[in-house]
Design a protein that fits this description.
It contains three helices and eleven strands; from the N terminus they run αββββαββαβββββ. The chain is of the alpha+beta class. The protein has a single domain, classed as Pnp Oxidase, Chain A, CATH 2.30.110.10. Strands 1, 2, 3, 4, 5, 6, 7, 8 and 11 form a nine-stranded antiparallel sheet that branches. The longest helix has 15 residues. The N and C termini lie far apart (about 35 Å). InterPro entries: Pyridox_Oxase_N (IPR011576), Split_barrel_FMN-bd (IPR012349).
Length: about 160
């Protein structure tokens, strides 16, 4: 029997997400990113200030992230949809973001906070996850099989809702 991954499994087993942003007029832009995350599903990534998504975040600080696992031999398609405000990390948040990067990946990114502050060309960004959804069971409506989404609680965000 095929099974879907849980939100925690999706976060842990994937290293790339798709970030969606838009300008103040609503023109969308999506880009794949290497990410890390914390216990509250806040998503962190490193990007150049000159990248299109970074410029759009400066203009409109709302974003959404999709982490997706395509179907395989023993699993159904799994996806986690996150959304919330995006910001450039403060100096304290930069330290935390770097710690999470090294803990998760051991990648050779600069471990110095100063490399992501001040005159640096790159920043560490953080999306504070306010809402989260996973794929639900599809339902037939007439002769169409429609995908469904199920809201899931975000750790540390008790009482906050998408409504």
């Amino acid at each position: 029997m095929a099974t879907r991954l849980t939100p925690a499994q999706l976060l842990e087993q994937n290293h790339y997400c798709v970030l969606s942003t838009c300008d103040r007029f609503g023109t969308p832009w999506s880009t794949p990113l290497f990410y890390t995350y914390d216990d509250h599903w806040q998503v962190y990534w490193i990007s150049a200030l000159s990248s299109r998504h970074s410029r759009l975040i400066a203009e409109n600080p709302q974003g959404s992230v999709v982490i997706y696992q395509p179907p395989g031999v023993s699993a159904e398609a799994s996806a986690l949809f996150l959304s919330g405000p995006v910001s450039v990390c403060t100096p304290d948040e930069v330290e935390r973001g770097l710690e999470l990067y090294f803990e998760r990946t051991g990648l050779g990114v600069s471990g110095r906070a100063a490399d992501y502050l001040g005159e640096s060309l790159c920043r560490i960004y953080r999306m504070e996850t306010w809402t989260a959804y996973t794929l639900g069971e599809p339902e037939w409506e007439g002769n169409l099989l429609l995908d469904k989404r199920v809201e899931v609680p975000v750790p540390g965000q008790a009482g906050r809702s998408a409504s």
